[in-house]
Amino acid sequence: MDSLVQDQRDPVELLEQLRPSAARREVHPRQITGILDGVKPKLYGAGANVRDWIHVDDHNDSVVAIIEQGRLGETYLIGADGEQNNREIIALILELMGKPADWFEHVNDRPGHDLRYAIDSSKLRAETGWRPQYQDIRSGLRQTIDWYAANRDWWEASKAATEAVYTRLGR
């Protein structure tokens, strides 16, 4: 993807994708698969870290818009105005998975953890007309949870290895 717009430079910046089959190290798949296995999710620090959550279909559509309408040499920031802090995301995941709101573990935040990823996608929107179609994070999370519940064979084999690395790193 690095050669799409800037000719071997970073063509796009994006934040947290909300999608089924995301890498198991990312916050939502790790928490969802853990809950499916009966493990309480971890909330780092106060959970105040803010991310702009974007549905994978919106991300893909924005990249197509950049390929088709973007200007060579420009950088386009991809965001969906879906800012939520990690505490809000954990609360929503717990609600959607039928768990009590306080069914999580507080753990120390890692040093230097970014408090907020802010994205201004106004340039992308102005130059290409792209707009996110999935503004409801609840339905995107529901799709993601359902996918992980239905596709345990896809993630179970590698989850143990992923968790072993996190245990070794103290996370």
What does this structure look like?
The protein is of the alpha/beta class. The chain has one domain: NAD(P)-binding Rossmann-like Domain (Rossmann fold, 3-Layer(aba) Sandwich). The chain is 43% helix and 14% strand. It contains six helices and seven strands; from the N terminus they run E-E-H-E-E-H-E-E-H-E-H-H-H. The protein has helices at residues 27-36, 56-69, 86-96, 122-128, 137-150, 152-168, and strands spanning 12-14, 16-18, 42-44, 50-55, 76-78, 83-85, 105-107. The protein has a three-stranded mixed β-sheet. Strands 1-5 form a two-stranded parallel ribbon. A two-stranded parallel sheet has the order 3-7. The radius of gyration is 17 Å and the shape is globular. Mean pLDDT is 83; it is low at 1-15 and 21-25.
Based on helices, strands and strand pairing, what is the structural class? alpha/beta
Helix content: 40-55%
- Mean pLDDT over the residues: 83
| Count of strand segments | 7
**What is the CATH class designation?**
Alpha Beta
User: CATH superfamily membership, which one?
Assistant: NAD(P)-binding Rossmann-like Domain
The CATH topology, please?
Rossmann fold
| Strand line-up in the sheet with most strands | 2-4-6
Overall spatial form: globular
**Share of β-strand residues:** 5-15%
Radius of gyration: 17 Å
Count of discrete domains: 1
**Second-tier CATH architecture:** 3-Layer(aba) Sandwich
Low-confidence stretches: 1-15, 21-25
Biggest sheet character:
3 strands, mixed
End-to-end separation in angstroms reads 31 Å
Number of helices: 6
